[in-house]
Structures are given as structure tokens and as C-alpha cells.
Amino acid sequence: MQDPFLRDIISALEHEIRSAGFFLMLYISANVTESLRMAASWNAEGLIAISYNDENCRQFIEGSERIRIPIVFIDAYFDGGRSFFNVGLQDLKGGVMMTEYLIRLGHASIAFLGDREAPIGVDYERFLGYQGALEKYHLPFSEDNYICISYHPAERREMLKQLVKERLRTYSALFFTSDYLAADAINFFHDQGIRVPEDISVYGFDDNIFAVAVRPKLTTVKQDIIQKALYAVKQILALIRKENMKENRISLPVSLVIRDSVRNLKSKSFFPHYAHYKK
Q1: What pTM does this model have?
Q2: What confidence tier does 276 reach under pLDDT thresholds 50, 70, 90?
Q3: Distance (Å, rounded) from C-alpha 267 to C-alpha 270?
Q4: Rounded distance, CA 148 to CA 136, Å?
Q5: For labelling alongside 132, which of 3, 27, 104, 123 has CA 20 to 30 A away?
Q6: What pairing do the DSSP bridges indicate for beta strands 47-50 and 71-74?
Q7: In the chain, what are the domains?
Q8: Is residue 223 within 8 Å of residue 234, measured between CB atoms?
Q9: Average pLDDT over residues 191-211
Q10: Helix segments in the chain, DSSP class H
């Protein structure tokens, strides 16, 4: 199982770029210098960089200026004091919306599970929204509530094992920073005899194919990937054509999608059944 975000955003970008009369050339690399070298050798007219961290963004901005190729980012958070073009989401607002929804249902002990490798970024913004909602409703928060979860399947499985063994009963709900991670956890919990949402509520972020493929269907925050691609292509075309831009950072709206993976604790007494966990 792999996160479908990159597949979906690349597909949407290809459609928009081709519709504009250009061709998409895809290059996947964690090495910014290598990516810029390839862009220059291909004589690319513009660059769209997806989901890079703060340091990579700085390198891309400086490198694109040297080779004189305009660049637009998708889902970048850059704290370097430089102007840059980006299409992202209201990630912080999404974190607030989902956490407040849980609190209104009676959840007072909520864990956040995401990537903590970068000091700023998509996961961190969603975490700040989650943390802000807890503070608004005067609910306790500690660093232990931020659980680092790996995108590598073997590592993630071990992390989930430890969560079930040592800490799961501490929480009534788990906020995963993507539907991919949330759906994978629901499947893992099912194999351990843990019921969602009866024993633990789970929710995600994205509203992608995993949200409706998993059982129970996932409560999540919806983002529009097609709109994200559309705006990114509009930005890069404007830069290529040297047109004036009204704004350089676009934050697309998010919305709450309510399905079946979250339990309303105010509707009846909540009795988790931890005794039937599999060893």
C-alpha cells in the first residue's frame, strides 16, 4: 500500500500542463542539485516542485535563479525570508476543524500521529492546528501526544505495535496526518482485534481513495488535488510568460467529511474493550 497523493497530483498536473500546450517531464530525486541539473539539460521552461522541506526549498529557489528557470512549489513551507510561489492548503485550519469536531463529540484525549523529521511543513502545520484547538478548549497537551509515525511500512508496523502495547488506552481518538496512514492503522488494529470506532476513534486528512476503501469509512479533512494542480500550472505559466501575479502563495480551502470512523462519546457511555487485544 502506498500513499496515492503523488500519483494523483502528478496525474492532475499532467492533464493541466498538456491542456495548456506544454509537456510534463517528470524527474524524481531527493537531490536538489541533481534535479536542477536535469532541468537545465532538458531546457525546461519552468519547474514545479512537490512536497520539499525547508532546506530543499531554499536550495531550489537559489538554484532556479542561477539557471533562470522559474519555479512553483506545491505544499512547501519555507522560513527563509524569501519570496516564493506556492500552492498549498489551509493545513492549520484543517487541524483546528478536525480537532474541534472531536472535542465537540466528547473526546478529551487525542493523539496526533505524523512525520516529525522537518521543523516546519505540512504535518507540522496540521499539528499546530490540533494543538491550538486543544489550548482553545483548555485541554491538556504534552509532547507525548505527538507520536512520530513512519511512512516506511516495516517501521510503521513496529511503531503501531508499540502504540497498541503501551499507549493506545491513553487516548480516545487518533489524528493521523494522512488518510493513507489512518487506513493502514485501521487495518492493523483490526488484525489485533481492536475495533474502530468502538475501542478507538481514527481520523485522517486528504479524503482520497483510502478514506472510502477502508472499513469503517474514514472521517477526514478534504483537499481538492485537481484544484491544487490547476493553480500550480496557472502560476508557472504566468511566470514563464512574465505576467504580473496578484498573489504568490495560494492556500486552498479544506472541509470536514464525516463518515464512520469516529465515535460520538456524548451519545452513550464509552466502554473500550481492551481485553480482547491479540498478543
Answers
A1: 0.89
A2: very low
A3: 9
A4: 24
A5: 3
A6: parallel
A7: 5-88+224-252 (3.40.50.2300), 91-222+258-276 (3.40.50.2300)
A8: no
A9: 96
A10: 5-19, 32-41, 54-67, 91-104, 122-136, 153-162, 179-191, 209-213, 225-240
